[in-house]
From TrEMBL:
Record's keyword annotation contains DNA-binding: yes
Native species: Azospirillum rugosum
Localization annotation: Cytoplasm
InterPro entries: CB (IPR044068), DNA_brk_join_enz (IPR011010), Integrase-like_cat_sf (IPR013762), Integrase_catalytic (IPR002104), Integrase_recombinase_N (IPR010998), Integrase_SAM-like_N (IPR004107), Tyrosine_recombinase_XerC/XerD (IPR023009), Tyrosine_recombinase_XerCD (IPR050090)
PROSITE patterns per the UniProt record, alphabetical: CB, TYR_RECOMBINASE
Protein name from the UniProt record: Tyrosine recombinase XerC
Entry annotated with the keyword ATP-binding: no
Gene giving rise to this polypeptide: xerC
Every Core-binding (CB) domain range: 15-106
């Protein structure tokens, strides 16, 4: 053991590695502006890696030890993750975290180890977005106000779901809005992943739904209070919003893929189907990479093929 600091951080490493990790973490927070969720995941992945190296070499690693690691050491760690049952996506994220740390060590002049750069990232098959149809999205918004016992809660749910579908927000982005941020004008400023801000246009239907909810909400709090609140007036939890959606989809017979995030998928897919520009949709969604947005072109192509197979006379003929 190397002392109290190691016990607090929860991993085995020599003081020079712990010091470097602290500086790396602050760099992620202050300069890279990563989200708290990403920061926690990256720090946890790196701690797990250091624990593995401690066991693999029978001693807590120092900076010199990290600098001398070879490809076989990194591959052994990835194999251990796979044997422990981690899926490819989790292994890819862990590798990204450790690779980020080593690149930062290199750029900051602390050590140079090219071995990790030669590793292949585990292949991750990203699930295809499952949007609602236009008809189902409209039906969900219409019915969302009718289910809850308290009328104001129904208006809250309709406002939230209309905002997700009408502006393409992530559920976390919507629930983090304050009352002063209420989308009552023509645009809405959204803080997305990595604390990056973007502007999205606000449809009149969104403004109308949010205004109706705010008028009906019994909690008239200050401008910095949460926009969407629970039954006791605190910020609405994502789990509650997901439960409301789950109850609603069961009531009106929608598939299990009808989630709050599916409304964001629907926003993008329906814009694309109606001729929306891919790069404009990327900006509206706050995607850092165009390749992430391009998944929606696959959805559109798949839907076109389903229409073709269902409607074209030749497609419906059985081969002899």
């Amino acid at each position: 053991m190397t002392g109290k600091k190691e016990a607090i951080l929860g991993f085995s490493a020599q003081p020079d590695v712990q010091d470097a990790m602290g500086h790396w973490r602050r760099w992620l927070e202050s300069e890279r502006n990563v989200s708290p969720h990403t920061l926690t995941a990256y720090v946890g992945d790196l701690a797990t890696f250091l624990e593995f190296i401690t066991g693999y070499h029978a001693r807590p690693p120092s900076m010199n030890d990290l600098g001398s690691l070879g490809p076989a050491d990194f591959r052994a760690w990835l194999s251990k993750l796979a044997n422990d049952g981690l899926i490819a996506a989790s292994r890819a994220r862990a590798l990204a975290a450790v690779r980020n740390f080593f690149r930062w060590l290199d750029r900051s002049g602390r050590l140079h180890n090219p071995a990790i750069g030669g590793l292949s990232t585990p292949k991750v098959k990203r699930p295809m977005p499952r949007p609602l149809t236009v008809v189902d999205a409209d039906r969900l918004l219409e019915e969302s106000e009718k289910e809850p016992d308290e009328p104001w809660i129904g208006k809250r749910d309709r406002a939230l779901f209309t905002l997700l579908y009408g502006c393409g927000l992530r559920i976390s982005e919507a629930l983090n809005l304050r009352r002063k941020d209420a989308p009552l004008g023509e645009t809405l400023r959204v803080q997305g992943k990595g604390r990056k801000e973007r502007m999205v246009p606000v449809l009149p239907a969104v403004t109308e739904a949010v205004r109706a909810y705010m008028d009906a909400c019994p909690y008239k709090q200050g401008p910095d209070a949460p926009l969407f609140v629970g039954v006791r007036g605190g910020q609405l939890a994502p789990a509650i919003a997901q439960r409301q959606m789950r109850d609603l989809r069961r009531m009106i017979g929608l598939p299990e893929t009808a989630t709050p995030h599916a409304l964001r998928h629907s926003f993008a897919t329906h814009l694309l189907a109606d001729g929306g520009d891919l790069r404009a949709i990327q900006d509206l969604l706050g995607h850092a990479s165009l390749s992430t947005t391009q998944r929606y072109t696959d959805v559109e192509s798949e839907q076109l093929m389903e229409i073709y197979r269902a409607a074209h006379p030749r497609a419906k003929q059985t081969p002899k």
